[in-house]
Each structure stands twice: as C-alpha cells, then as structure tokens.
Design a protein that fits this description.
The chain is mainly alpha-helical and 475 residues long. It is built from 19 helices and no strands. Mean pLDDT is 80; it is low at 1-10 and 462-475.
C-alpha cells in the first residue's frame, strides 16, 4: 500500500523556517545582518577615517585590533555559553559592541578609534560564539547546513547596499556617521533577540573553563603585543623587536588548551578543520582589508565605488555557501575544504594579476567575487564539520575554538601584512609593487589551507563519536 501524500509530508523533518524553529532562525539572521552591515560599512569608511586621523601607516591595526579583542571574547563565550546558556554572553557582547561603535564615532585621534575597535571586537567575539551555541542546540545536524546558508544569505542585503550607503554617508555626512548609525541599530536588534535566546546551560563552570579564560586573556595580550611591535619595526629600535618576540612567545604559550590537540600539526579530523579556518581568514581577510585602500589610493576610486568590491566578495560568499548546502552524497564534505581553498587562491591570484598589469580597479569587483565564493564554500563547511564532530556537551567550547582560529588567523595575517605595508609604504601613490607582493604572499597562505583541509576527515578506524572525543581540548 502506498503512503498517503499527507503522511509522507508529515514525515518530513521541519525546516529552519517551520513554526518550531522560525523565531530562532530569524533571531540569528537578524543579528548576523547587523554584524554584516557593520563590517561592510566600516571597511568602506576606514580609508577616509585613517587619513583624517593620521593613521594610514597603521591602517592594518584598525582591523587587527578588532580581531585581537575578538580572541578574548570567543574564548570567554564558549565555556560561559555552555555553563549559563547563550543569553548572558550575547547580552554582554551586544553591549560591548555598541560601546565600541560609539567610541569610534566620537574618536578624536586614531588611538581612541583603535580603543573603540577593541571594545567592538570583544563584543563581536562574544556574539558570534553565542550564536553558534544557539544553532548547535536548536537544530539537528541535517538542518545546520541550511541554517548556515541563511546566515550567509543575511550578508546579501548589507553587501549590496552597505558599501554604497557607507560611501555616500562618508562623503556627505563624514566617516563618523558610519560608526554612529550602528549604535541604535544594535540596541534595537539586541532588545528584540535576547528574550528569544535560551538562558540556561549546564550550570557548571569548571576549573578547566577558568583556565581557558586566563589563557584567552594571555592570548589577546600576546597578539596585541605582536601586532604593535611588528607594526613599529619600521621605526627600528630594540624595543619593537623585543615587543614582537615577547608577543609571539606569549601567544604560543597560551594556545595549548584553547585549540584541539594536534591543531598546530594539522592532525586528522577536528584539529585540521579548526586549523584550516584560521588559514582561510588569514588569506582572505588580510587581502580584503587592503583592497579598498588599494582602490582608493592607487586606482582613484571613490569610497563608495571601492566598497563595491566588498559587495562582490559577499555575494560570492553567499553563492559558495549555497553550493555547500546542496546534497552531494558522492563528495565527502571535508573535500569541500580543499575546493574552497583552491578558489580563494585563484581569486587572490587574479587580484595580483590586476595589480601587476595596471588594469582598471573595476576588474577587482569581479575578481573578489571569485575569492568570496571560495570563502563561502570553505567557511560554512568548517562550521558544519565542527558541530558534527564535537560532542554535544562541548559544542560551545568547540565553536569557541573554531572562532578563535578564525580570529587568530586574521590577527596573524594582518600583523604580517600590516607590518610589511607600514615598513614599505610611501605617501603619494605608486605602490602597485607593494600591494602585488602582499597579495602574492597571501596566495601561498590559501594554498596551505588546501593542504590542511585535505586532512579534515575523521581519523582512520574511528567512528565520529570516538573521533570527536579523541580531539577534545587539552589541559
């Protein structure tokens, strides 16, 4: 006897927009939309803000400082969310994020602007990990790829209107308005979302969690010292060398216990999945942070025109994420990590070609669409695999480690690229060779991501549960 259509339909699992999931899905998407608008708007306005405050040579710090503070936020949010539920870290993150945006909007100097970026970064780290905890708790493994697809889709509208709007606001109202407009939006979104976020967790905040928080603080200190020291190497002097070396030493000492065992040696399974995430962000975001500056200073584009490259990257990201949501039964999901890295390398390589050839900056808009597609394929896949491999009770910690790798990759990538830029940059344009060398180095980072991504499959002779338990975070 055939099954009636109605019965067959009722047997289908509810989707992310079904009644029981709709509020959670829309709440997560709303917060991601705000984060996306802030990211697109700030990146568009930053060349003008840095010039106005005399911080062009320290341009990279405007982005790496945000990521440095995010390191601490992500480390704290994981155990906090597991123990107390995601509402508390989400509320604290929203408050810090809003305070940071307001500080940037009122900043009288570039140093104060960097302070605002630190506050916003700490808040952003708390928010992102809390949202991952929500997704891990509320959705099954089968639904998570679709949820991450919706989260990527939330970048589309901000990507389309954000750069153009931020560029126009920068030209007509000043760059401060770009930071300021985010403040009331963040308050409204937080007030709408927080009542719908779970407020309870395991209730246990163990000694291991406290050690993670301490290590996270040390990691942020080390990363900050490394960035400042590397950026000041251009001025010479022993203190900058000492600060850079001390920062690197502190950072390496703090890492054990924050990432899964074997991450630094690309062990198979979860360690490589989390490790490749950092290589993705090191390659892509280090390049993207300097794309608007290149287009404004070397190709003469206006801020709103340069911001369209970010639109192309976000649209490509959405397209790549849509690809990974498809049912690909014959393609092991870990191979998508390799595909994503290859596409990123291709996109950045094409960017080098545009710089070297002296081609119009408008070609960058298409080139960055390619790189963004690779990020969409790879980044969403790392999220899916992390939640799949991590034990249910440790999804907050695993998500924290994933986001930590994400931010750490961006910090280290920007620290190196920013130091090179600060040392070799000369006012007045004519810096195509400098930009080409920076971008070419990042192609190699994307290639390394492909090598590590190939090891993102579970270890041999080990079921998924055992694979996850074998890669838990070390002491």
């Amino acid at each position: 006897m055939s099954v009636p259509a109605a019965a067959g339909e009722s047997a289908q699992p509810p989707g992310p927009l079904a009644r029981e999931h709709r509020r959670t899905t829309l709440s997560v998407v709303a917060f991601i939309t705000l984060v996306a608008f802030e990211s697109m708007a700030v990146a568009t306005a930053m060349p003008v803000a840095a010039a106005a405050l005399g911080g062009v040579r320290s341009y990279g710090l405007a982005f790496s400082s945000f990521l440095t503070a995010s390191l601490l936020g992500t480390v704290v949010a994981g155990p906090w969310g597991d123990a107390r539920g995601p509402r508390a870290p989400l509320a604290a993150g929203a408050a810090l994020f809003t305070a940071g945006q307001l500080t940037c909007a009122l900043a009288p100097t570039f140093t104060v602007l960097l302070l605002g970026r630190l506050l916003a970064g700490a808040g952003g780290g708390l928010v992102v990990v809390a949202l991952y905890v929500v997704v891990g708790a509320a959705f099954s493994d089968a639904l998570r790829p679709k949820v991450f697809g919706y989260m990527s889709a939330a970048w589309v509208l901000p990507a389309v209107v954000g750069p153009a709007l931020a560029g126009r606001m920068t030209l007509s109202l000043g760059w401060r308005s770009v930071f300021g407009v985010v403040v009331p939006l963040a308050v409204v979104v937080a007030l709408v979302i927080l009542p719908r976020v779970p407020a309870s967790g395991t209730g246990s905040f163990e000694a291991t969690a406290r050690r993670r928080v301490l290590r996270g603080a040390l990691l942020a200190v080390g990363a900050g010292a490394l960035q400042v020291g590397a950026e000041r190497l251009r001025d010479g002097g022993a203190w900058s060398v000492v600060l850079t070396a001390a920062g690197a030493a502190i950072l390496l000492a703090a890492l054990p216990g924050l990432l899964p065992r074997g991450t630094l040696r690309a062990a198979r399974g979860l360690p490589s999945v989390i490790g490749v995430r950092g290589l993705y962000t090191a390659a892509f975001f280090s390049a993207e942070s300097f794309v608007p500056l290149f287009l404004v200073t070397e190709r003469g584009l206006a801020p709103d025109q340069a911001g369209l490259a970010l639109t192309g990257g976000a649209l490509g990201w959405f397209a790549g994420t849509s690809i990974q949501t498809r049912d690909l039964p014959r393609v092991p999901r870990h191979l998508l990590l390799v595909v994503g890295a290859a596409v990123i390398a291709c996109g950045i390589g094409l960017l080098v070609g545009v710089v070297v050839s002296g081609a119009s900056g408008w070609f960058v808009l298409l080139v960055w669409l390619v790189a963004g597609c690779g990020m969409g394929i790879g980044m969403a896949t790392t999220s899916v695999l992390t939640l799949r491999m991590a034990p249910a009770a440790e999804r907050g910690v695993a998500s924290s480690a994933l986001q930590l790798s994400d931010n750490l990759g961006g910090v280290l990538g920007l620290a190196v690229v920013g130091a090179v830029f600060a040392a070799l940059h000369r006012p007045g344009g004519g810096q195509d060779g400098l930009f080409a060398g920076m971008f070419a180095g990042l192609v190699l980072v994307a290639v390394a991501a492909g090598v590590v991504g190939a090891r993102g499959r579970p270890p041999r002779r080990c079921d998924p549960a055992a694979a996850a338990s074998a890669t838990v975070l070390g002491p």
